[in-house]
Amino acid sequence: MICIQLFVCLYILSYLILTHFRKNAEFATGLWNLVFLFSNLSLVFLMPFAYFFTESEGFTGSKKGVMARVYETAVMLLLLSLLVLGIVWVASALLQHNAARENLYDLWEYYLPYLYSCISLFGVLLLLLCTPRGMARMFSVTGSLLVKPRLLENVEESMDCALLEEAALSRKLNSNTSCWLGLNLQGMKSEFVSVQAMRKALEMRRKASPWQRNLGYPLVMLVLLALTVVCVLMVCFHVLELLFDESAMPRQMEDPHLGLASFSMFGSLGATVQVVLILYLMASSVVGFYSSPLFSGMLPRAQDTTLTQIIGNCVSLLVLSSALPVFSRTLGITRFDLLGDFGRYNWLGNFHIVFLYNVLFVGLTSACLINTVTWAVQRELIRAFGQYCTSLFWARLAVVSSCVAFPLFQ
User: Fold this and answer.
1) Residue 266 and residue 371 share a domain
2) Residue 158 is part of which domain span?
3) Can you tell me where the transmembrane regions are (predicted)?
4) Of 53, 224, 312, 393, which has fewest CB within 10 angstroms of its CB?
């Protein structure tokens, strides 16, 4: 019965879509514009409303309750909207006074896209800082989730250390002697839980199959390296296009009609590569955002995340995701118009800004990757040199001891 009801609902919905949208392009464009509109509505109105609602207590003299907080939140949001629109109004009048006078009262067609242009510009600059760092961090983050080969990781040694540490903490917690009474028991319990979880994870990694251990880790690292290299090469090719072809500018790219021509010169394979690269850039930007020292404190933690931090994380992810279409189109990853009705920005037609942005992305990505690789090599060399020096020291000490002890026995 449930399957029949779902089938009937899907059939009616499909019939309405096919009768209302005669062409696939209209349906895809309309659906994308709706997604784009509601995401920005959440960013501009719903997230500030949620923050003000958590901080509000109601007006003085009103009855305490939910509706009093809703009224105060609505008034605060209205005042904030008027303040932001006034700032945008003054800024547009100062920067583009002729166009601003002609569109002085055109809120929907001029000021809302202009406001989103400012937000997306901030998001694009944030992506420029976070994505190269995230690409370099993706190797270590992914490597920590996979089982490494035995040449790169000694699971048995880590397992023994975890067992000893867990046993020591368990003995301290279960001991009734007076020497442990002054310790922070809550901190010791949390440390014991984390060590126990690490020990269970090490047990699962020790039980991994040889195929998963010796084949999975190198393949994933090669895929990440290939995605990074392809992304950097595409941006370098786009830099050359910007130098010799004016149509390579993001604002001057002509989009083929949806379904009539391919968005890539390599056909379906190129379109698939573009989709994979955009998803990879999105994941790298999130990893780089939370690994940066400025935003690492916003990382959600289990049972230790306030509602204000949750709202801040939602706003950050909305800003990054809203700027991702502009980011992909500026770097030349895709020629598809992902910007919707809000995609006509003046700075996208500025050659110097777009060219400098592409060059900075290539430079920062290369610098982060080189720094990561060289630091790993330096760490391994220092460790190997330290082991060599230690073994040499003990060998010489043994020789000296034998030389000193030999005359005594004579």
Assistant:
1) yes
2) 148-207
3) 31-53, 74-91, 111-130, 215-240, 260-290, 310-331, 351-377, 389-409
4) 393
